[in-house]
From TrEMBL:
<dbReference type="Pfam" id="PF02417">
    <property type="entry name" value="Chromate_transp"/>
</dbReference>
<feature type="transmembrane region" description="Helical">
    <location>
        <begin position="107"/>
        <end position="128"/>
    </location>
</feature>
<feature type="transmembrane region" description="Helical">
    <location>
        <begin position="148"/>
        <end position="174"/>
    </location>
</feature>
<feature type="transmembrane region" description="Helical">
    <location>
        <begin position="78"/>
        <end position="100"/>
    </location>
</feature>
<keyword id="KW-1003">Cell membrane</keyword>
<keyword id="KW-1133">Transmembrane helix</keyword>
<keyword id="KW-0812">Transmembrane</keyword>
<dbReference type="GO" id="GO:0005886">
    <property type="term" value="C:plasma membrane"/>
</dbReference>
<feature type="transmembrane region" description="Helical">
    <location>
        <begin position="296"/>
        <end position="316"/>
    </location>
</feature>
<feature type="transmembrane region" description="Helical">
    <location>
        <begin position="265"/>
        <end position="284"/>
    </location>
</feature>
<keyword id="KW-0472">Membrane</keyword>
<dbReference type="InterPro" id="IPR003370">
    <property type="entry name" value="Chromate_transpt"/>
</dbReference>
<protein>
    <submittedName>
        <fullName>Chromate transporter</fullName>
    </submittedName>
</protein>
<dbReference type="GO" id="GO:0015109">
    <property type="term" value="F:chromate transmembrane transporter activity"/>
</dbReference>
<comment type="similarity">
    <text>Belongs to the chromate ion transporter (CHR) (TC 2.A.51) family.</text>
</comment>
<dbReference type="InterPro" id="IPR014047">
    <property type="entry name" value="Chr_Tranpt_l_chain"/>
</dbReference>
<feature type="transmembrane region" description="Helical">
    <location>
        <begin position="328"/>
        <end position="359"/>
    </location>
</feature>
Length: 360
């Protein structure tokens, strides 16, 4: 067993320097647990990645909790998971208090508008990078395309109801694998906190794929239904979730801050991340059986491509929220940087923010 203090320091460091989303988090966790200290066997670590991808919610957060559980038991999992999450939450709360305040300085508005203009490009890039692995593993490329298309349209048109499509695609593939013919196997009021709770539950417990899959879920509530944020401010919130260390799901903290201040940010973050702790700490001893079970794998075969489609589809309402001609120039530039120049996400957003400051 690894000492709790060592888990706190190791996972806390990843929570502080973990810019770049799930690929960066997985690389840092593997370096810490498999390569440097040899606490976990490489094959077991890869299996854990696969199982975490079968679960709803942020997979890299669940992997961090599992890794800490594996080396330190349930207390280690709790401490490691919190150490991974808390630094990013502190950063995004501080940035939300600046960017999402009632009268931020003009340069802050410019930076938010610039970074927000690039978010649609980041969403497209996220979907693109997830596609190859999912495409190679699918039992049917025709159904894969149907699931991805259905979720992309839902994310672009239906907003928060995309969760129904994600679950429906998973259930459809599960049914096909078992029974189908197949070739192979703002202002606080009485309703604000309950509404914020439901939004956070959807983010943490019902979003397969994590990351940008949560955007249409949150946007439908935060912008269209409850008006906690304007379209432009929601883009700012998503940009903040991208430039902070730790998981992109921290964006829910910015939405919570807009809805109900600091208590709302804390509440939304706690509710969104709690399912990950429960899934992993209660289910970790059964990970091997989950990994080999046909039912969960079949469900993921439907929900996985739907999650990618939802990520790509989320770029449409994000782009529609742009108001200024110069923001479209920033968006086009961000697409070139990400897809052609292979520039990192955080660097691209910083460049976009600087462009926004100069434009205003």
């Amino acid at each position: 067993m690894v000492a709790i203090r060592q888990i706190l320091l190791g996972w806390g460091r990843i929570g502080i320097v973990g810019f770049g989303g799930p690929p960066a988090h997985i690389r840092l966790l593997r370096e810490l647990c498999v390569e440097r200290n040899e606490w976990i066997d490489a094959v077991e670590f890869e299996d854990a990645i696969a199982v975490c991808n079968l679960l709803p919610g942020p997979a890299s957060t669940q992997l961090s909790i599992w890794s800490a559980w594996r080396v330190g038991g349930r207390l280690g999992g709790l401490v490691g998971g919190l150490a991974f999450i808390v630094p990013g939450f502190v950063v995004i709360l501080a940035l939300s208090m600046v960017f999402l305040s009632g009268h931020p300085p003009r340069w802050i508005l410019g930076a938010g508008a610039g970074a927000g203009a690039a978010v649609a490009a980041v969403a497209l890039h996220a979907g693109w990078t997830l596609t190859p692995t999912s495409w190679q593993r699918t039992p049917s490329r025709v159904r894969w395309g149907a699931y991805a298309l259905a979720a992309a349209v839902a994310a672009a048109v239906l907003g928060p109801w995309v969760v129904v499509v994600l679950l429906g695609c998973g259930v459809a593939e599960l049914g096909w694998s078992r029974y189908g013919l197949r070739r192979t196997q703002g202002t606080i009021n009485a309703w604000t906190l309950p509404a914020l709770l439901w939004t956070a539950v959807k983010v943490g417990a019902l979003s397969y794929g994590g990351g940008f899959v949560i955007i249409p879920l949150m946007r439908g509530d935060a912008v269209d239904k409850y008006g906690w944020l304007s379209s432009q401010r929601f883009l700012d919130a998503v940009a903040l979730g991208q430039i902070t260390p730790g998981p992109v799901v921290h964006t829910v903290g910015a939405v919570g801050y807009a809805a109900a201040g600091v208590p709302g940010a804390v509440l939304a973050t706690v509710v969104a991340f709690t399912p990950s702790f429960l899934f992993v700490l209660l289910g970790a001893p059964r990970f091997d059986r989950i990994r080999g079970a046909r039912g969960p794998r079949a469900f993921l075969a439907g929900a996985g491509p739907a999650a990618i489609g939802a990520i790509v589809g989320s770029s449409i309402p994000l782009a529609r929220a742009l108001n200024e001609p110069w923001q479209w120039v920033v968006l086009a530039t961000a697409l070139i940087l990400l897809f052609v120049g292979r520039v990192g996400i955080v660097t691209t957003l910083v460049i976009a923010a600087v462009a926004g400051v100069l434009a205003l």
